[in-house]
Design brief:
rod-shaped, alpha/beta, 21% strand, 27% helix, OB fold (Dihydrolipoamide Acetyltransferase, E2P)
């Protein structure tokens, strides 16, 4: 394989390492719309007769859409089989201002999509959002937003996200191939110049001084060391 071909492969691997994850996320992973749970909770139901129309129209229009939301995992409403948990914004134990149903999202994992919650208080959840109004026996709203979970990612504070293994492998391979191609090109240049009596460093005519270049002082050898 020629040095130029190796250099071309190195450039291709480097491009894949830098842009491959972005292309993968755009082409393979569905697009998720980011929603703000705090903004979606900024309304009140009619005290005497809560109804679905009390939910603002722009939030009812999100029903069935793929969304992503970042929130805290509540200390209640958690089950493992099937995985179900509640998302919201704390504090969750304020007796003076109890948590309202519209301030929470009930998250239910799709079969085979998510089996556990990462060890993090705050998570980003991806899935299909459902907007409805479920009430208890007293007519009080108990569930407004629910999401069928596709994926759960922990939110790491003050940490940069680590790149995937394949991306780092492609990056290291690109650097190694680039170094190898540069070395092969240098060797090819040396071997093409040495028989002609030309210094491989500066290109000076060394036929009169075959042991050392009089121009730059480079020691001359019979052939490229192996």
């Amino acid at each position: 394989m020629t040095p130029r071909r190796l250099l071309f492969i190195a450039v291709a691997l480097l491009a894949a390492a830098l842009t491959g994850r972005r292309i993968y996320d755009r082409c393979v992973t569905p697009d998720y719309r980011t929603i703000d749970l705090a903004a979606m909770a900024n309304f009140n139901f009619t005290p005497t007769n809560p109804k679905l129309e009390d939910i603002p129209a722009q939030y009812r229009a999100l029903d069935g859409q793929r969304v992503q939301v970042t929130a805290e995992v509540c200390p209640f409403g958690y089950t493992l089989q099937p995985l179900t948990f509640t998302l919201g914004r704390g504090p969750f134990t304020n007796h003076f201002h109890p948590v309202k149903a519209q301030q929470l999202i009930v998250a239910r994992a799709r079969p085979g999509k998510a089996s556990s919650i990462p060890g993090s208080v705050e998570v980003t959840v991806y899935g299909a959002l459902h907007v409805s109004l479920k009430q208890n026996e007293d007519g009080e709203p108990v569930e407004v937003y629910a999401i069928d979970v596709d994926r759960i990612d922990p939110v790491e504070m003050n940490l940069l996200p680590s790149p995937p293994v394949w991306q780092m492998t492609a990056l290291y391979a690109a650097v190694a191939l680039a170094a190898l191609s540069v070395a092969l090109l240098a060797r090819k240049a040396f071997e093409s110049r040495r028989p002609l009596g030309i210094c491989p460093t500066c290109g000076y005519d060394t036929r009169a001084t075959p042991k050392r270049c009089p121009e730059c002082g480079t020691p001359l050898v019979e052939r490229w060391p192996r």
